[in-house]
Amino acid sequence: MSHASPPVIPHFGTASDCVLANRPFCSDWVRAHWQDTLGPALVQHVELTAIAVAIGFILAGGLALFAHRIRRAEQPIGVVATLVYTIPSLALFQILVPFTGITTTTVEIALVGYSLVVLYPNMAAGLNHAPADVVEAARGMGLTERQILLRIELPLAVPAVLSGLRLAVVSTISIATIAAFLMPRGLGYPIFVALRDPAPFKTEIYAAGGLAVALALVCDTALVVASRALVPWTRKGLAA
Amino acid sequence: MTGTAAEIVFDNVSKRYPGRSSPALDGLSLTIPAGTFCVLVGPSGGGKTTALKLINRLISLDEGDIRIDGTSILDLSPVALRRGIGYVIQQIGLFPHHTVGENIGTVPKLLGWPAARIRERTEELLTIVGLDRADATRYPQELSGGQRQRVGLARALAADPPLLLMDEPFGALDPITRARQQDEIRRLHREVGKTIVFVTHDIDEAIQLGDRIAILGEGGRLAQYDTPDAILADPADPFVAAFIGEDRALRRLALRRLGDVPLLPFAGGGPSVGSALTVRNAVSLLLEGGFDRLTVTGDAGTPIGTITLAHATSLLQS
Asked: How many structural domains does chain B have?
């Protein structure tokens, strides 16, 4: 990997006129360094995000179900989640380093933490979405508590869970760029490298930043499409 | 598809909620014969909804016993008990993420009916409650309030339970839709012959619908339990008299149609009215026009008798 020992003038390679003049965007550099810099950074970024959101989703789901069953736990968990979110991510990395070292684990713990606190309130609210009369009717017809959860409350929580998921994915993609302060991983790293130069190389910053934005947009759009397929009742409901 | 009806017995049932000084129900004993349309009516705080929800154990029974066809409700699991009882509430509580068909098929599915039988039953019920078969694939949000209430009723009837509990089902409907639904639930009761326990705070609705009315007063006391006619003719105490209103004589006459009461022999004279008219409306016409008599005509328009104010008065004595 080219990041192992950054050159004095990073990532220039065979410099074109555009690159030498450090114009805002040199497509020839992007093409030349897709294989060794941008492509791997994008893949790493997707990995960082996917792992963080997946683990965060499972943990937040578990916590939300726990809070749903034991109503008294709902508020304390919510307060802790908000507190975690207020810790600046850079500070959180530094807090974790003595325990988990300068590793991907440190980065993932921080990212999981953030996705968790974004997902949890949406999931908790979603589970309470089922109107009281719907739950009463279900109970009155003889659904067991488990059936009420699986057939009524969980499906009705789907829209809120999906909107939480969209927020979590987009914010994790954004926060994951900061991982580069700790590890040479993700789309933050090319930006970080470029910024270290006294005259920052604009193309590298714009290309990596643009990829992060594009990744967020693509994921968000995919989730919107998925949510339309998953909650057919809400679309028709709006028309009535 | 006419299921059997169930007899409900309240045996000295009391219910106290923590932190309340007066009981919600105080020693309620009541027998609802199988097939009866029984209306629980009274002011708020009378415990009528409590009484209803005790039957399907949405509220726990602490004192006394409730028996359905002789079996205590405590001898069944709440889930098994509820699957055998239709339940309709004012807010309806249709599942918004299920289609109309899926909503109606809820209990049959819980009971493990095969899919073909559920589909057949759903179509049958849509027809019974006056909806279109094509409505099965729509979502509740696409329906009007009255249509949703019909789906709620169809859902409650789906597994053909011998007992139907209805908690102010028409309270949220506009007067016209409400009147239509009242007519239909009466018709439905005649057709399917189930025992219905119906809660309302509206005495007019109670009189119109009930075979029997239980009037529950403050503190969960059963003030009177009888047929509408008997309650109107002879209110048990001042509370009942005030609750049913000063115009109880007219309300009684409104319960009867000219074709159903003994009339005076046809003597000619006075305007003609149909036999489907209520005695109350006949009296209104007599007063309005200052007539001394009306001629009552049968289906073919032939006179079947005569009614006068004095005769209407004598009907109240019977």
From this structure: 2
